[in-house]
Amino acid sequence: MVPVRTAGPADDAWATRTVSADAPVHLAHTLAPLRRGPGDPCHQITPDGAHWHTSRMPTGPVTYRLVQDDPVTVTADAWGAGTAEFLDGLDRMLCLDEKVDDFVAIHPTVAAAHQRHPGLRMLRTGRVLEALVPAILEQKVTIVSAHAAWRRLLHSFGSPPPGPAPEGMRVPPDAATWSRIPSWGFHRANVGPQRWQTVVRAARVADSLERTVALPPGEAARRLRTIPGIGEWTAAETAQRAFGDADALSVGDFHLASIVGWTLLGRDMDDAEMINYLEPVRPHRYRTIRLLEISGQARKPRFGPRASVTDHRWH
């Protein structure tokens, strides 16, 4: 266990840990999927380049601050009752143990991105509900609307973070709180019945969901899909963050297949074509998508105006 040096109340217990890898780790690229849009109450990047995040570990809430010391080293400071548990699992969360020797690039653009960004790691937070709820909120709505809903819900039902967190940060609600949020609470956040009912259903079986981290990622995702309202896309988005699944392809995404097609083949592509095209890169299909994203090469021509954000809160 990582020793915790108490500095004040129990909620402000503090400790630090530095981890090193045998190969490069790019902290910003690795942590990017944790951030749910600008102003995410659970994730902030401060001007000094530090990444702040809040989470709710089984042992309690935690605020942590991660900084890149050098290409292979990351230091974490953490505060709160969940400090020791979080720091114990830091190397696992950053997937410092993953091997990519079997990665085969299917296109020169992917090969170049893999060569330029050797520090990209997957994420294995082990916190299933924290990854699942925002993914549910992102179902079948614009990403702007989903991020706004996440901010409203966290500010209304989240809790103050332990330690010296930047202003405006909140700790995500626990499962009991998510399950008790009234319909009007979701309505005020512009979350429709189908999505909030799925959130509540998931929260009510949260203990079972959290145990899926011990399963192979494919089986864990299958169990997620047994909950009504959680399909392949939502399970993949959760697996990418909670399970460290480098193969979790977000099939059903409104833009993804087209982006893959236009970026790599210069034409549009549907989900079936994307699945077939990416088959040779298993078990690294999601890694391939992330490489396209961070390389700046991902593109999709715009053929019309952006979709408008519909506000249902006043209906």
From TrEMBL:
What enzyme class is recorded for this protein?
A: hydrolase
**Reaction catalysed by this chain?**
Hydrolysis of alkylated DNA, releasing 3-methyladenine, 3-methylguanine, 7-methylguanine and 7-methyladenine
Q: What is its EC number?
A: 3.2.2.21
> Is this entry keyworded DNA repair?
yes
CDD domains tied to this protein = ENDO3c
Highest taxon in the source lineage: Bacteria
Query: Mind telling me which InterPro entries this protein's record contains?
Result: Alkylbase_DNA_Glycosylase/TA, DNA_glycosylase, HhH-GPD_domain
Question: Can you quote a single GO CC term?
Answer: protein-DNA complex
| Key words, A-Z | DNA damage, DNA repair
Which molecular-function annotation in GO is an example for this chain? Answer: DNA-7-methylguanine glycosylase activity
Among the GO biological process terms of this entry, one is: base-excision repair, AP site formation
Q: Which PANTHER family match?
A: DNA GLYCOSYLASE, DNA-3-METHYLADENINE GLYCOSYLASE
The molecule here is called: DNA-3-methyladenine glycosylase II
Q: Which organism is it from?
A: Nocardia jinanensis
